[in-house]
Write a structure and sequence with these properties.
- The chain has 23 helices and 41 strands.
- The radius of gyration is 29 Å and the shape is globular.
- The model is unreliable at about 1-40 (pLDDT under 50).
């Protein structure tokens, strides 16, 4: 996942929805005949950006007009006259991507027609110089924000209860009518013309009843007026398979588990010190024989299960947060267990390198119980497939019990949120937002088509009401579900201002008024810079560089690539890195180059890792492996600055996550095949250490300490339990050798994968798995007990952290770091290494007590010679020394 315009190699979960078409989970829209409407959509090259101005790509600088109909049979069409004009400085700043296109001014005499024009078919028309009439569709988000945004942004939407009586509100400014379908009957709603919000107040007996909105609106994607039966974007509860919203008050005491009001949380850990486990809810327990609720929220209440006992041990060692992959309502998984398909094969009977497992899993994938969850349907309701019963509000209660369960073993909860795209758009049955206000919530390209650079139908948080939805949804999860942090998927597709608005809204939450301390909630996300928003083309993005100094972290791909080697999109997966044998234990891949090229690349990787260990600070100054004095920002990463952070906490370190191969699988590809299992495990721990012992927050994928494998699957979003499930009992293996990974994303790698999967030496035994996990926990204990790993400022890092042996003579494959009273040696080579720091001669150091008395007896042999200042470290070892 590079910052250089390459997109993440991710699951593409919602693409599955589009590929499958309608599944019947939602009632399809019914259509009314349109008046003088074309039979289908047309390009929308004109953009009505505010009440005064229209921009029209490709138009001539001459008079034009906006034509609209009223929707009344027999009524004549009407128009708003346009004259050539120019964008104001404020308009250019708000719409930088439109500055080169012809602009038109709406005739002041016609501006009063704007609200009416927006509620019907709308086209821009112009008579060209040669007499031809040209027309195009009109994009309307800008003018909707101008006319309605100021009032609508303060509206309370969805079901809101006052003294037991609900009011239901939905923003639909372009709708001709909106009605409420409540429990099988139709109730009219009233429109507020100033905000575009439709409301209806109900009675107490509405509580718990199913409802939808009946929205009659012009739908440009089908070129006609339709009446859409659609659920509430601000739903607080749903029926099974998201067929209806439910009138539910999240403050209803019946939805609060015992002890919820007085929930005692573990002490908040500041983001710069956070150590995070990334975890998928179903993966966690679906194959845990000791869990009473496999695959469910309630598995986190089974305190005696193997999974919970392992999480508790990580918490005791220093893990502070569990990051849950998306747990909001998704479009892909059938929520009723009776409707869920499963592989109909004896998967365990096939050979470890067979194609049969993936064939069988793939046949069931479209209707099985598995998906990562990056396919948003309703942003603020828990996913029903993880509940014991997807009908009604059980999912609310059980999500809360999950949070309680994690808090009870010392872990705070982070939620992965995906506001950058929807599962579908237009009139697709899985489209919610776009069937209520067509053409508003999705980000549109210059021709009016929906942007899909995110993999799916992109949203537009730069628009007032989409930005509001993001803020309102996050605040609801924080207040009503007591979530302790949020990880934003593809955060670079959000405006920086939107993410800062989230931060501001959370900071306003107080324990006395809201039951939570919002200032202690952590935020981080993927700050990748790509797609139609890249390089701040439409707004200042929430990218790595732009978020520096905000206290909101972004994932650091620089150190990740350096320790693993290569990048996520290499055609040959055997490209090696610092932690996978580059130069020091070369494999046979020609992609690594000759020894001289390997040595040069390894030295550069070591510089990238140094920057990463500082917290990826832009202004941190050190001597690089060429002997030059450089700043972190002057170290190259694929043409971009390696260092971008302003302070510890701006960059989040990691060696693996759910995207791309697990760390074990990456090392399986990259290390020479004959590498011993114990050495593979040691290098796994060393790679994890480059994140765990860095300044700033660090994340690891759940199970990485247990050498977790997905049988070399690089994109397991839809690969089912067989490839994804965590194995807490080492007797069940680590997941390696469960067959060739699914062909859709891995077939080009099968020639590399097949001999590895067939090799029994790559399937670690219990002693190796347990040893790696124990060694990783020792690193967590060191981090948790040493204040120097939590430096607050860049200046403190500069003064207390150094790389004394960095320079032209630095040992390839070895990093030596001083940090206050600590000295840390990362030896990624197959040989013992002697690192002499002359300045430390005469100073008393010893191996850190945690490692000296820890689980890894090889690391315990690391030593220090006080007379010469020499640290001796075994092969494939990270050793931490403490000044006595």
């Amino acid at each position: 996942m590079s910052s250089t315009a390459r997109r993440p190699g991710r699951r593409l979960a919602a693409v599955l929805v589009l590929a499958l078409g309608a599944t019947g989970l939602l009632t399809a829209p019914t259509a009314q005949p349109a008046h003088a409407a074309p039979s289908g959509p047309q390009p929308a090259l004109a953009q009505w950006i505010d009440r005064d101005t229209v921009v029209w790509k490709g138009a001539e600088p001459s008079a034009a007009q906006l034509e609209f109909d009223t929707g009344r049979a027999g009524a004549a069409g009407r128009r708003l006259r346009l004259t050539p004009g120019r964008l104001t400085p404020a308009e250019r700043a708000a719409f930088p991507h439109l500055t080169g296109y012809p602009a038109f001014t709406v005739d002041p005499r016609d501006r009063g027609l704007a609200r009416t024009a927006l509620r019907g078919r709308l086209v821009a028309a112009q008579r060209t110089a040669d007499g031809r009439r040209t027309t195009t569709g009109v994009q309307i988000p800008g003018v909707l924000d101008d006319l309605y945004g100021a009032r609508a942004r303060h509206a309370a939407l969805g079901p809101v209860f006052h003294h037991g009586r609900p009011t239901l509100s939905v923003w639909a400014p372009t709708a001709r009518t909106v009605a409420l379908e409540l429990d099988g009957r139709t109730v009219p709603m009233r429109r507020d013309d100033r905000s575009g919000v439709w409301r209806v107040q109900g009675t107490r007996d509405w509580a718990g009843k199913p409802y939808r909105y009946l929205v009659t609106v012009w739908a440009p994607t089908v070129g006609r007026t339709v009446t859409n039966k659609v659920t509430d974007p601000y739903s607080t509860a749903l029926t099974a398979d998201s067929a209806r919203s439910l009138v539910v008050d999240l403050d209803d005491p019946r939805l609060a588990p015992t002890g919820w009001a007085g929930l005692h949380k573990p002490a908040a850990v500041p983001l710069r010190r956070a150590r995070i486990q990334e975890l998928h809810i179903r993966d966690f327990s679906v194959e845990d024989r000791t869990s009473r609720h496999p695959g469910q929220y309630l598995a986190f209440t089974d305190r005696g299960s193997d999974g919970m006992r392992h999480l508790k041990s990580l918490a005791a060692a220093g893990t502070s947060y569990v990051h849950l992959l998306p747990a909001f309502d998704g479009a892909t998984v059938p929520e009723k267990r009776a409707d869920q398909d499963r592989p109909r094969c004896d998967l365990a009977s096939y050979a470890p390198d067979s194609e049969s497992q993936q064939e069988c899993v793939t046949r069931a994938a479209a209707r099985d119980a598995y998906n990562w969850g990056y396919d948003p349907l309703h942003y603020t309701v828990p996913e029903g497939s993880y509940a014991s019963d997807p009908r009604g509000a059980a999912r609310t209660v059980e999500f809360r019990r999950m949070v309680q369960g994690l808090n009870g073993i010392g872990l705070r909860t982070v939620m992965d949120v995906v506001y950058n795209h929807t599962a579908a758009s237009g009139q697709d049955p899985h489209s919610v937002l776009d069937r209520i206000v067509p053409g508003y919530y999705q980000r549109l390209l210059d021709d009016g088509t929906v942007a899909t650079s995110t993999c799916c139908s992109g949203t537009a948080p730069e628009h007032t009401m989409m930005g509001k939805l993001v803020v309102d949804s996050v605040v609801t999860w924080a207040k009503e579900y007591k979530v302790d942090g949020f990880r934003f998927d593809l955060m670079g597709h959000h405006p920086k201002a939107n993410i800062l608005a989230v931060r501001k809204a959370l900071d306003a939450l107080t324990p006395a008024r809201d039951g939570v301390d919002g200032k202690k909630i952590i935020l981080y996300g993927e700050g990748w810079n790509f797609g139609e928003a890249a390089n701040d083309a439409r707004f200042v993005q929430a990218t790595q560089r732009n978020m520096a100094g905000t206290g909101i972290a972004t994932f650091d791909d620089r150190a990740r690539d350096a320790v693993r080697g290569g990048g996520p999109f290499d055609a040959d997966p055997r490209v090696q890195g610092f932690g996978s044998g580059l130069f020091t234990a070369p494999n046979t891949s020609p992609a690594n180059g000759d020894p001289a090229a390997q040595r040069a690349r390894l030295r550069h990787y070591q510089d990238l890792l140094k920057v990463g260990l500082t917290g990826n600070l832009a202004d941190y100054t050190f001597t690089d492996t060429a002997g030059r004095r450089v700043k972190g920002s002057q170290v190259d990463y694929n043409g971009a600055p390696a260092g971008y952070a302003a302070a510890p906490g701006d960059a989040l370190a990691y060696a693996d996550a759910h995207d791309n191969e697990t760390l074990y699988d990456a090392l399986a590809y990259k290390l020479p095949q004959g590498t011993r299992p114990t050495d593979r495990a040691r290098l796994q721990v060393l790679a994890l250490a480059t994140a765990a012992l860095s300044q700033g927050p660090a994340l690891s994928q759940a199970g990485s300490d247990l050498l977790r494998s997905k049988s070399l699957d690089r994109n397991s979003f839809d690969s089912g339990d067989w490839f994804n499930a965590l194995h807490w009992d080492c007797a069940d293996g680590n997941g390696f050798g469960r067959g060739l990974p699914p062909a859709a994303d891995n077939k080009d790698k099968w020639p590399y994968a097949k001999p590895l999967l067939a090799d029994p030496a790559l399937r670690p035994d219990c002693a190796t798995i347990r040893g790696a996990s124990a060694a990783y926990r020792d690193l967590l204990r060191i981090h948790a007990t040493e204040p120097a790993f939590g430096l607050r400022t860049a200046a403190a890092v500069q003064s207390q952290l150094s790389f004394p042996l960095s320079g032209k003579d630095e040992t390839p494959g070895v990093l030596t770091m001083r940090l206050a009273d600590l000295a840390i040696v990362f030896n990624a080579t197959p040989h013992p290494q002697h690192q002499t720091v002359a300045a430390l001669a005469g100073h008393p150091y010893a191996l850190h007590p945690v490692q000296a008395h820890g689980a890894d007896r090889t690391t315990a042999t690391a030593s220090y010679d006080e007379t010469t200042g020499t640290f001796t470290v075994p092969p494939y070892t990270v050793a931490v020394f403490h000044r006595r």
